[in-house]
């Protein structure tokens, strides 16, 4: 059952399209307490209550004990001292002594979740302004509440089957030949591949819907050449539009007044990859349509996959902020002899605060339906509506293609339009563990087409780290090896044990029929694709606190090894299961295990898959691409 | 057996006092390969070889799969993308298919350890210059090699018993009353306490061997007042000396020519907490003695504990570097309209590179025995010789006191003079795990008096995180709760469950007799106090890859819970053991467990202690301080 409470005058995020009637504030029960200013809802926690939710946020699968802030942020440090990542997914599920309770705070600005941090026994949810809707969902179980919530927010985006193929990406592929080499070296080594990603380097000076003409002189032919090899190309599409005289898209937007405005009603000038840029006002349907139709540039050439990036939106700086900072730090020169440390650190902090500055987010405006609204109040809707812009027109501009789109920034509602990836992680073992924690929480917030940058985006991977990362990602819908310019090249063929990597890819492709079926089932039936065993077995006390095992679909459970140099791990089986220890889709051992704790030895080249009682492991035949799957 | 190889003309670090005769280069065997330029030694790894060592470095207990750089660094981010921390401990132990092998690279500058990162099957050790000594140690077992190495480097520093008491610290206690409050609130709550730390705030403008006269008007009386309550005060002593006319210590050093010099033979000017400062040339015995005798300022007042800080040495900037940077970034002001992103990032990088800049470490000099040597070539000896300065004179200036000294920076050799703490960690669960990994590796490098900032230095702790951290630290010689200015206050009495914390402290004090006996035994017999079970049971293949359990002394094993919200953990017993699940020294359950894997449930207020076969758990009676222990 869903109750809806309305506080103040909320902005309609369109997260919920079919809203239940509002309950009077006085009906707010279930132990929830509203503060006098109505910004804060609090709840007393029992000692063993588990809190799920918050989508791609940091920390454990159980979110308890930390603070989270939902304000979409281009945050490259996914460490324990960060509060925000790229997506804001403001649903939590409390599983505890008093039963199960779902809470969705529909507010598109900053919401602070203190989930037993300040006081270990108290949960508080604080919206920056008392203008939001709170949905309170009850049910017989956590999984029932999740399904109820998923129905409320509407059916999730469905990616095509090919989007489950393996993709290779790197910030730094510059031209056709770079991409040809990636494809050739996969083929030469019999490594399955479905996609090569084109990061920002492909563009003409980082202008959206352009190509560097020297690097891609005959793009349509190149797309065809790749298609003939069953390779999809996926260009990156960024939020900001370069300010450049003669750039038709920029000029059209100026003419039509499509960009976000500053306090004075002038186009708000910021910087992203193209340098000085403007931001399309994606909250306006006409701007979305204009931007969406631009994808024809690619779809007409046969491109059927896209990733939307920098759409928090990331601000490298605002022009105003840059000028102020530059003026301020110019004084350092005259102060070096007398400078005290705190003044120096102030200068340093000022420089380092240029990007994604809160003041900048408060200094520009949207005009949805002609009403001016300050950006920070609707900040989390920006990436959502950018992805929506494309998603809404694909049927019109590319009716015969099965397009894929996923985004970095998101807010609940965008799950109906696109998938997401979890942004710029690092080549850290802890980030393998992180995606395990994120998967079920993303699923419950509506995001089914999800995945992490496999091998890690920032920093340098090692062969074994990449293997362990792939052993998780081979179960996720999006399975992309992606890394950053300047980091160690991490295409599979850079390493020694290519045979072992090929086995992992073959296992993925053999699993695709099962994974895709589970994925579609999760969408159609508003279920989780990745289910914590604590939710699947709510009566099992041992299962409640297990954070590194997941049911995948209805039949399988995974318990990956994600620690450096580990030779195995502990697994808890909430029921009897069969362990398949898989070196490849063809080479595996099979062991019957009983309910309870087991330590299992797992070699660096092995993937443990647990088959649930009464279920079986159905593997297809691997192929060099999804197009070649039988 | 120890072989010694000498390459080039090494600087004598005094890590080894009694050097064995050098072997000819041609004798280098054991699968070790020397590069033509003699800078690099490499070794082929077998698949399951485990590599211990490198003291306080990051990553697992098994160091394999990563790169490490030994260059003492004031590094506040202890994340997976860092190569260096505060100490350089250049001993590794390879445990593997070909037996056990110890390698000590005695070079006081940068040594790069690539332990199966670039090539998963190859270990390389690369010294920046081909002027170093390499000790190759063989033996029947890893533990035998460790003992042989420890004998080689000489007996470890022995801290007094009182140094095993609980200490409370915070960057931010400013005056006598702040300290009195800490003591009072511990006493009021019956919380045992032996020490309160005085961080940099106590000084008069951060000048070494001074006190803020307003904050500490009658210091001797204050020390006596604290002593009467069995409280030791431990002032922080920093490396850099403030440049200030009239500051006697600064002026003496100038007069005697005691400071490090720049290229032109002038005093090298850098900044640390006091602002513009100079660095005593601790590599010279006469400078050490001068600095050491300064401790009389404190010992004469009855102070018997010290921590040496900022002695990597940390450089906030060099005056030369600051002037160059300030000049450079002043141009930003004129470029804001035309600036490209890479230029902006260059400015940002330039500002952020002010601290601990490699060029700065190459721009000043020491003059040990009248010979000029560039700092970077002996960098890792700086903190070592600062700690030694004090340690060498305590018997002379405070013969009746049992003094304690520990340092942030270190290099093997300094283990004979002082303990160390593991520097500015954070309130991260991963940093609880980190200290578990560091303890045995520190021990094998000679560091026995060790501990981490309990609760985490940087960032904000939670009640449960502090509990889990204390459940590890209560076994470490140094047991100090320390945190940074601006972070959540984390004295025990700030939290709700004071009873549970008191139980943890009582358990610590009840364990002190056992812990101190084990500590002294480890020193006297050149053993580990914290032993990986893989080393203790070398024939046990299951034990080899267990990184989060440690034998403590001869009788006990610990297997702490260090994950947020975990309700227990897997433990591997290499032999039958008795599990004591301890809520306090008096309230516990006892379970006999057989050799093998077990999942144990561990409540947030429980400490699991495993007693080895044939051994027993001997607890003393808790007391409010070590002085009151029976």
Keywords for this entry:
homodimer, 630 residues, alpha+beta, Immunoglobulin-like, TIM Barrel, 6-stranded antiparallel beta sheet, globular
Produce the secondary structure layout.
Two copies of one chain form a homodimer.
Chain A: E1 2-7, E2 33-34, E3 40-44, E4 50-53, E5 67-70, E6 87-88, E7 91-96, E8 99-106, E9 111-115, E10 122-127, E11 132-138, H1 142-153, E12 166-168, H2 176-188, E13 195-198, H3 219-228, E14 232-238, E15 241-242, H4 248-256, E16 261-262, E17 270-272, E18 275-278, H5 285-293, H6 296-299, E19 305-309, E20 317-318, H7 319-329, H8 332-335, H9 341-352, H10 358-361, E21 364-366, E22 373-374, H11 382-391, H12 394-397, E23 404-407, E24 410-411, E25 419-421, H13 429-444, E26 450-451, E27 453-454, H14 463-473, E28 479-481, H15 498-524, E29 530-532, H16 533-536, E30 550-552, E31 556-558, E32 568-573, E33 577-582, E34 588-593, E35 596-601, E36 607-612
Parallel strand pairs in A: 6-24, 12-13, 12-28, 13-14, 14-19, 19-23, 23-25, 25-26, 27-28
Antiparallel strand pairs in A: 1-11, 2-3, 3-10, 4-7, 5-9, 7-8, 8-11, 9-10, 15-18, 16-21, 17-18, 17-20, 21-22, 29-30, 30-31, 31-36, 32-35, 33-34, 33-36
């Amino acid at each position: 059952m869903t109750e809806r409470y309305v506080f103040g005058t909320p902005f309609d995020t369109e997260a919920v399209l079919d809203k239940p009637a509002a309950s009077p504030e006085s009906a707010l029960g279930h132990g929830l307490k509203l503060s006098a200013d109505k910004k804060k809802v609090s709840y007393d926690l029992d000692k063993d209550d588990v809190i799920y939710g918050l989508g791609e946020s940091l920390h454990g699968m159980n979110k308890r004990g930390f603070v989270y802030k939902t304000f979409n942020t281009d945050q490259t440090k996914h460490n324990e001292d960060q509060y925000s990542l790229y997506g804001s997914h403001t649903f939590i599920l409390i599983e505890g002594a008093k039963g199960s309770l779902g809470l969705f705070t529909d507010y598109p600005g900053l919401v602070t979740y203190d989930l037993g941090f300040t006081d270990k026994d108290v949960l508080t949810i604080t919206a920056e302004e008392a203008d939001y809707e709170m949905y309170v969902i009850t049910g017989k179980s956590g999984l029932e509440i999740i399904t109820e919530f998923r129905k409320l927010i509407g059916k999730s985006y469905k990616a095509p089957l090919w989007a489950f193929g393996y993709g290779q990406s790197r910030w730094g592929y510059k031209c056709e030949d770079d991409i040809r080499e990636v494809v050739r070296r996969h083929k030469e080594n019999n490594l399955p591949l479905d996609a090569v990603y084109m990061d920002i380097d492909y563009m003409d000076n980082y202008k959206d819907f352009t190509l560097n003409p020297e690097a891609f002189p005959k793009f349509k032919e190149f797309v065809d050449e790749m298609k003939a090899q069953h390779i999809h190309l996926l260009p990156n599409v960024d939020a900001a539009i370069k300010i450049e005289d003669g750039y038709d898209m920029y000029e059209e937007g100026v003419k039509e007044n499509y960009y976000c405005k500053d306090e004075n009603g002038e186009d708000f000038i910021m910087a992203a990859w193209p340098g000085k840029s403007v931001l399309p006002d994606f909250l306006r349907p006409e701007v979305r349509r204009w931007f969406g139709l631009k994808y024809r540039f690619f779809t007409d050439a046969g491109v059927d996959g896209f990733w939307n990036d920098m759409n928090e939106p990331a601000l490298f700086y605002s022009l105003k902020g840059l000028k102020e900072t530059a003026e301020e730090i110019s004084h350092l020169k005259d102060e070096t002899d007398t400078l005290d440390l705190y003044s120096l650190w102030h200068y340093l902090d000022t420089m380092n605060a240029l990007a994604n500055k809160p003041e900048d987010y408060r200094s520009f405006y949207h005009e949805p339906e002609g009403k001016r609204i300050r950006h920070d109040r609707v900040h989390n809707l920006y990436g959502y509506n950018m992805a929506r812009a494309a998603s809404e027109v694909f049927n019109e501009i590319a009716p015969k293609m099965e397009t894929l789109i996923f985004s970095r920034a998101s807010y609940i509602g965008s799950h109906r339009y696109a998938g997401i990836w979890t942004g710029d992680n690092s080549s850290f073992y802890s980030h393998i563990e992180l995606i395990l924690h994120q998967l079920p929480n993303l699923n419950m917030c509506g995001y089914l087409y999800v995945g992490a940058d496999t091998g890690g985006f920032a920093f340098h991977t090692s062969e074994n780290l990449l293997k362990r990362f792939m052993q998780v990602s081979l179960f996720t819908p999006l399975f992309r090896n992606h890394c950053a310019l300047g980091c160690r090249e991490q295409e599979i063929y850079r390493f020694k044990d290519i045979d072992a990597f090929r086995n992992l890819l073959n296992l993925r492709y053999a699993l695709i029929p099962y994974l895709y079926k589970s994925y579609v089932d999760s969408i159609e039936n508003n279920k989780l694709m990745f289910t914590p065993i604590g939710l699947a077995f709510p009566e099992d006390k041992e299962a409640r606190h297990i954070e590194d095992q997941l049911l995948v679909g209805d039949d399988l459970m995974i318990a990956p090894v994600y620690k450096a140099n580990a030779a195995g791990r502990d697994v808890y089986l909430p029921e009897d299961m069969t362990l398949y220890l898989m070196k490849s889709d063809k080479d595996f051992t099979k062991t019957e295990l009983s309910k309870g704790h087991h330590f299992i030895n797992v070699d660096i080249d092995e993937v443990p898959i647990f088959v649930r009682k009464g279920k079986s492991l159905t593997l297809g035949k691997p192929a060099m691409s999804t197009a070649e799957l039988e």
